[in-house]
Amino acid sequence: MNPLPLNVASLQAYQSARSLRKGEGWIFMDANESPLAYAAVPAALPPLNRYPDPTADALRDAVAEYYGVRRGNLMMANGSDELIDLLVRCFVRSGRKTAAPTPSYGMYRIAADSAGVDFVVARLRADFSVDENALRAVLDNADLLFLCSPNNPTGTVVPRESIERLSAAFSGLIVVDEAYGEFADAEGVPSSIELVRRGAENVVVLRTFSKAFAAAGIRLGYCVADERIIDILLRMKPPYNVNVLTQATGLDLWRRRDAMERNVCELIAARKVLAGGCERLGCSVFPGRANFFLLRPPKGVSAQTLHESLVENYRIVVRRFPNVPKMEDLLRVSVGTPEHNELFLSSITKLLP
Questions:
Q1: Are 212 and 250 in contact (CB under 8 A)?
Q2: How confident is the model at residue 6 (pLDDT cuts 50, 70, 90)?
Q3: Backbone angles phi, psi at 309, to 5 degrees
Q4: Within the chain, what is the greatest distance between any pair of CA atoms?
């Protein structure tokens, strides 16, 4: 075999509990999925012998109408991860950089590494809020800035005023990843989709069906942006990137947004109860606006010990960050079913001193 390009040879794959822990009986509270699955079967499944609509226009029209934008402002994709990859490949020039705050979603770095472009970071403040000055300091020679809001893994939001200021000062693209945007919507946090609606030319907003719509299994995401950006992305994408089953299911889910909104309210309430239970046990909980939260175990108990004990004794999986600076002793807990939440609290009650 011929030698690999250097960026491919050194590439580290994205890791999740699904790839590390297989088999039955696991309680996954690590991946920020919705535990509240609900039926999403279209009235008539499409025929499978024909290729799907290459641009998923029925979905684009439904989403565009809801947000008050044009079809040309929307692109549907095989999950937000496809869009993250396409944005780096389309808009980061050779010798230029991709930037993001840290800690944040790991796929931003993987997309940059895959494309062979440099990835630079600006550290969040101690309370995990964005430091605008630190971000501006790393934007020299950058073509693209990722801002995750609410941020994964911290749950914190980037104020829309900060995004507006950065947009005005930055010549490249600002990609606002609102994977958990529906949770923020429900708590009154303004979406950056409004900036696109007002005509912002360098703001791209990502959203997904994986979280609030309880549809991680169909792999469906979308972006809202200036029509010229969408045109370039559509030219670069694979011919039939969103399959017919995903398009039909996504459209059915979108038309029943009321079910999603009820689920979101239920999960926010459950998050508050679960986080409060952890605090009563002596854990420190960081405030967030998503379907998960960060906790620090009580003094004298390491995140590693608590994580391992949950896995070994109760087959409960939460997310640990052993290689992320200043997060080594934190755990990210996704809200589970009521039964799983109760089991989590009863389990850590037994494990904590």
A1: no
A2: confident
A3: -65, -40
A4: 60
Share of the chain above pLDDT 70, in %: 96
Look up the CATH number of the domain holding residue 105.
Answer: 3.40.640.10
Domain boundary among 240, 256, 272: 256
Average pLDDT over residues 41-64: 91
Between CA 49 and CA 236 the distance in angstroms is: 25
Nearest to 235 by CA among 45, 75, 78, 103: 75
Q: Cα torsion for 233, 237, 242, 243, to the nearest 10°?
A: 160
**Sequence-separated (6 or more) residues with CB below 8 Å from residue 8:** 114
Closest CA to 200 of 166, 234, 149, 157: 166
pTM exceeds 0.90: yes
- Give the model's pLDDT for residue 41: 66
Q: What DSSP assignment string belongs to 271-289?
A: HHHHHHHHHHTT-EEE--S
- CB of 83 closer than 8 Å to CB of 75: yes
The mean pLDDT value for 117-126 works out to 97
Parent domain of 144: 57-256
Stronger pLDDT, 131 or 12, i.e. the higher one:
131
CB 179 within 8 A of CB 152: yes
Report the distance separating Cα 270 and Cα 297, nearest Å. 20
At residue 300, does pLDDT exceed 60?
Answer: yes
Whether the predicted pLDDT of 39 surpasses 80:
no
Domain C-terminal end among 256, 278, 294: 256
Whether residue 293 is contained in a domain is answered as: yes
Say if residue 170 is in the same domain as residue 297: no
CA–CA distance, 173 with 310 (Å, rounded to integer)? 41
Domain count, the chain: 2
Same structural domain for residues 216 and 305?
no
The Cα–Cα gap between 248 and 77 comes to 14
pLDDT at residue number 18: 59
Do residue 179 and residue 252 come from a single domain?
yes
Distance from C-alpha of 266 to C-alpha of 332, rounded to nearest angstrom: 19
